[in-house]
Amino acid sequence: MENYQIFFPTSSTSSASPFSSKITNSHDFTHMSGSKAEIGIPRSYDKGVMESGTSEDSESNMKSGKKKGDKKIRKHRYAFQTRSQVDVLDDGYRWRKYGQKAVKNNKFPRSYYRCTQPGCNVKKQVQRLSKDEQIVVTTYEGMHTHAVEKSTDNFEHLFRQIQTYSNPF
DNA sequence: CGCTTTTGACCTGCGC
DNA sequence: GCGCAGGTCAAAAGCG
């Protein structure tokens, strides 16, 4: 592992970004590409929720035909930017890439990962800023229902802080 | 042999 | 109503 430089929403320590650490939505990520290093903790999401309950199907909604039902606003998204040369940051969990799409405002494609742990449908997406290719935006979606299987206590500590930040949400 | 990655197609939501 | 952008799936290939 290398030493990653993490940018936290606490602007008190951010000395390189006079930008206010505003709360940005995930969709605003494309707009904030014009800024420098900025972290955005998205708030409650409106739609796009695939889980509508506690114990039922997790996917297979858009399989054959569509399923329309109640959409619960239950999405935890933590987005933070890291300064690394690698796209994927090994946070101790097992991720399986399930998609890759090119963003319009970014020259670099966005990768979609999913936790391979059964029952743990946590998703994350990594995106590299076209302005600064050293900045990698990692967006976590969901909460892990299992423990970390690797000894990345360092990153675990980081993750705890992230969860603390998103606690009021 | 099993799992992960890759890539194209498909679907949905939103804006115009 | 159509087009665009984003997100997901699924089949095939590659690798350990």
Commentary on this structure:
InterPro entries: WRKY_dom, WRKY_dom_sf, WRKY_plant. It holds the Pfam family WRKY. There is one protein chain. The protein has one helix at 153-165; strands at residues 5-7, 77-83, 95-102, 109-115, 123-128, 135-141. With 169 residues, the protein is mainly β. The protein has a six-stranded antiparallel β-sheet with strand order 1-2-6-5-4-3, with no helix packed on it. It starts with a strand and ends with a helix. Mean pLDDT is 58; it is low at 8-74 and 164-169. The chain binds a DNA duplex (16 and 16 nucleotides) through β3.
Task: List the uncertain runs.
Answer: 8-74, 164-169
Q: How are the strands of the largest sheet arranged?
A: 1-2-6-5-4-3
Query: How many β-strand stretches?
Result: 6
| Rg (C-alpha, Å) | 16 Å
The number of distinct helices, counting runs of at least 4 residues, comes to 1
The H-and-E topology, N to C, reads as EEEEEEH
Average pLDDT figure: 58
Q: Span from first to last CA?
A: 31 Å
Shape: elongated
Strand percentage? 15-25%
Helix content: under 10%
Structural class based on helices, strands and sheet pairing: mainly beta
Q: What kind of sheet is the major sheet?
A: 6 strands, antiparallel
GO molecular function: DNA-binding transcription factor activity; sequence-specific DNA binding
Protein name: WRKY domain-containing protein
Organism: Liquidambar formosana
Pfam family, one: WRKY
